[in-house]
Specification:
- This protein is mainly beta and about 170 residues long.
- Helix content is about 10%, strand content about 30%.
- The chain has helices at about 5-10, 30-40; strands at about 60-65, 70-75, 90-100, 100-105, 110, 115-120, 125-130, 135-145, 170.
- Strands 1-2-8-3-6-9 form a six-stranded antiparallel β-sheet, with helices on one face.
- Strand 1 (about 60-65) and strand 2 form a beta hairpin.
- The N and C termini lie far apart (about 50 Å).
- The structure holds fe (ii) ion.
- Fe (ii) ion binds near residues 85 and 126.
Length: about 170
């Protein structure tokens, strides 16, 4: 059997484009969702003109949707916060685009600055607030899309109440 025979069996892949794997149009893994968040964060033309500060409420804009995920842009004036909440069945990636946000979790409190990322699984509970003097902008990817954001008692953010599933890890940009 020579190589011509193999070619006859398999066909010439350049002549059968349907056998070529198309580049994936949408992210579907945690790493790909992080990659999506990073690429959007890096491209200010995707979101800068959509930032809107509203003194009466945090301002939300759904930046993008795809199969099994949503991307939200949030604008925060000083003093605005989410309150303690979880994300129902959704996992998520949170990154700060401008300003500084403070995240309170069962593990403590940390400042999130531009380029900082949080990746979290279902069950993750936190309270995010802009307690700085400048407005802030953040990008949130939820997979699956956020269907509920139940508020939880502030006591859930205390160390003793931390369920093991609420694992999150900072990712250095
Ligand atoms: Fe959240």
């Amino acid at each position: 059997m020579n190589s011509d025979s193999d070619l006859q069996i398999a066909g010439d892949i350049l002549e059968v484009p349907h056998l070529l794997q198309a580049p994936r149009e949408h992210p579907s893994t945690v790493a790909e969702f992080v990659g999506l968040a990073r690429s959007l964060a890096a491209d200010r033309s995707q979101w800068e003109h959509l930032v809107q500060y509203d003194a009466t409420t945090r301002w939300y804009h759904r930046l993008r949707t795809g199969p099994g995920y949503e991307v939200w842009l949030l604008s925060w004036v000083p003093g605005q916060g989410s309150g303690p909440h979880d994300h129902g069945p959704s996992s998520g990636v949170l990154t700060v685009l401008e300003g500084t946000l403070t995240e309170h979790t069962e593990r403590g409190t940390r400042a999130l600055r531009p380029g900082d990322e949080r990746v979290f699984a279902p069950g993750y509970t936190h309270d995010v607030v802009n307690d700085a003097l400048e407005p802030a902008v953040s990008l949130h990817v939820y997979f699956p899309g956020l269907t509920e954001m139940p508020m939880v008692p502030r006591s859930h953010l205390r160390a003793a109440a931390a369920p093991a599933a609420c694992e999150a890890r900072p990712v250095t940009a």
